């Protein structure tokens, strides 16, 4: 989310080349890389939802701004009181658009309270369970923690104590969420390379949580708050991204992009009114900076920036150093003083914001450092022209699409017999995917979850092979992991049919007055397997006896009243949910 904090400029190169790159038509280019995520505030659900659905091709997940943590066991739902559409319906709508839902939880506790919760093993464990349950029970794909109290409320003197507790908590929470198939995102202000002489908000310990978290969203905005200036200078943003990438896998990192601007009072002449011309309170404080006191400022969403400038006859100017737009205008306020005397003042105001060009400049850092993407505060507030520019750029860094096939050396095997799985993956131009670890998975068709059974690396032909021992009927697939260069891919599912193995000890001959008794074993060696003794009659198999296996898989099949002659029999293990029907090779018995 957003929070006001100051910083100084850091030197870095500005990525201007992207501004002149051509955008090819969608018909001859691949789908864009999904480089955008962002927050969807509970107070602007309609606008953010429309933006998400319209631009879902650029997003793999979004972060609804819906919850606040009040204690280790209490989560405040801020969405429901503000929206008539049920939360579950909204989640389903976002899922239907093809994006994952990873809601943000802010720290809604008082000063040092959250630090105290994390310091208490019992409360910390309770909070892990509370947050995990929230994700599971609401069908969220993960959660995002935006706990800014450590940085902006508790004071830096608390950080040496808070940091190790925070790191331990994040590791535990990530493990709990991952067990449920959920992700953990962390949103923080920037940390700085100690080599610069400043450390930033080091309490959040990027290095310590890097291997546990799935996303790091950096709030690279609110650089200028108390005095007029850029919202997030491009050099400062790049320095934060570059340092983060030295500590955290770059693909996990998302840099914050503001879809808002600020409008500061930088000078004032006259005496400003308290009441407007209608006699009502003016509703704003108009204060010029001076004597250590900041000037007043207002905020606006960037999709209103052009109309704001036009309404005052101002022309926005692009500042290449900061990668932002700015303009200055004057506004006169007329009304009365608190005593009723007529008065007016003229305020000189300076505006800064990031237009689509500024957003694109920051998005270019995604390609330069192979970051996960950008995170917009807040979706629905941006200039609509932003999306076409982002889409065009995202296509230039689109990952290769990958397709896979899977073949089995034998699709039907006996119990404990191996088959070889051969998975081949290629990119769109048919080039093989070489040197990639392919994950093989199985499912028994009952449990909806897929089980990992092993990995194998693709050869120069793009093929990876793995031997699988037949243990029961299984569905099999192969998965090629996603990388910066390639999209993830899953092969079509193949069916492996497995039959039980049966041994038998039939007699070679019996008298026709004696029962025919056939004994043997069935594997896997277990009780309760349905077995059938069949006799061939006129080219058809007729059931003549049934039984079930006992302990260790032993069975006995007995048939009475066999006619004299040379008769042909076989033993069959019936099909069930785990195995196909199995029939042994026919055998003959002389009936005397």
UniProtKB/TrEMBL annotation:
Pfam families: Glyco_hydro_18. Its EC number is 3.2.-.-. The keyword DNA damage does not apply. PROSITE patterns: GH18_1, GH18_2. GO terms for molecular function: chitin binding; hydrolase activity, hydrolyzing O-glycosyl compounds. Residues 33-397 form the GH18 domain. SUPFAM superfamilies: (Trans)glycosidases. SMART domains: Glyco_18. InterPro entries: Chitinase_II/V-like_cat (IPR011583), Chitinase_insertion_sf (IPR029070), GH (IPR017853), Glyco_hydro18_cat (IPR001223), Glyco_hydro_18_chit_AS (IPR001579). Keywords: Glycosidase, Hydrolase. PANTHER family: CHITINASE DOMAIN-CONTAINING PROTEIN 1, CHITINASE DOMAIN-CONTAINING PROTEIN 1 FAMILY MEMBER. This is Putative sporulation-specific glycosylase YdhD.
